[in-house]
Amino acid sequence: MITLNIEKTLGFVSKEKVMAYEPVIKAAREALENGTGKGNDFLGWLHLPSSITKEFLTDIKQTAEVLRNNCDYVVVAGIGGSYLGARAVIEALSNSFTWLQENKKNPVIIYAGHNIGEDYLYELTEFLNGKKFGVINISKSGTTTETALAFRLLKKQCEEQRGKELAKKVIVAITDAKKGAARITADQEGYKSYIIPDNVGGRFSVLTPVGLLPIAVAGFDIEQLIAGATDMEKACGVDAPFADNPAAIYAATRNELYKNGKKIEILVNYNPKLHFVSEWWKQLYGESEGKENKGIFPAAVDFSTDLHSMGQWIQEGERTIFETVISVEKTNFNLQVPSDEANLDGLNFLAGKRVDEVNKMAELGTQIAHVDGGVPNIRITIPALNEYSIGELLYFFEIGCGISGYVLGVNPFDQPGVEAYKKNMFALLNKPGYEEESKAIQARL
Ligand code: PA5
User: Is 3.40.50.300 the CATH classification of the domain at 48-223?
Assistant: First the structure.
């Protein structure tokens, strides 16, 4: 089970103050459970893990098999909540280098539709030229420009390269039940499709087909992922005592730190595979809490890499930050530092030690330094990088976010602020229906 340790925040906030959140957190947790809080039409994620059936997972695995059997590469087209969860899990669990090897056991997952980079898309289509590839087109609204644009290119290329009939087999849509262009295309072309439930917002959708299908295609055990999430759902249930509920303590601690001027939370990892877990977390917390002119700013670093870039700022910059460290207890492989007779690099003092022991001492040394430097430190320990632990971690962050948002007093399930850039972009591109906005924005240029 993953564990939470807030001891190293207690020189900055008092334990009594954190524990005094109990009634507020209880009210927030009950509001989630009873659907009485803000954004209560988006609570479908709350009991998602425990309500997923074996049959549903079997269906996902069967679709994954079709893609696995027919494709060397599968492009996941999606942005924000329609992409980050899948990438977070896949990168956390994947061997860092097998995608570079010949004769791969699993199709390589490639991502598109999360930017509008012309060079990126050109290079992607060029790379896919002549390759056996499929596409998972993920968009809840079915109208997101970045994703739709990439899918238009990929659909055409897939049909031309693989023939229309096979393309229908290797293109899968994950979208709304009825509305949006992605739904219309899927129905007309006869693609296999999955529905993103109305009551699950993008950033809370990793445990729906949005995350599950790409993760299964990549060769990972979605049953174990759901098992971990289900156990965490229980641990953070409405009846779990406050002190034993890790998400409740996390929400209380970060809100108390925020109240005491710690406006920025930096998610830290010491394992490069967790980079996209941080990207997923940034979206989850940023989009959920950053509104009404409030909210902790979610940032992330990969240590020890970023100790050589952001380390200076964290140690001595403005004291408005706290760190939440994801610590992985056990590595999946063993590697010892070899002894070297000449010892030219002076590293023989490490000979015989595991590389992870060096990493763990970097972690401990950094924690001590940063706490000494005025940076409170929350620590989340996960036993190992496997499907079960990642499932636990995902749900822990989701429920922690829902509770935290309610404690902050915002609606954690909407994102009105992301529309502003879209409106301007459509106006600038003269999208039909935006004539007035086009005139207005042209006048401002
Ligand atoms: O969390 C969210 O709601 C957003 O990040 C969306 O997932 C993102 O904008 C993509 O939207 P859609 O799935 O409609 O293409």
Answer: no
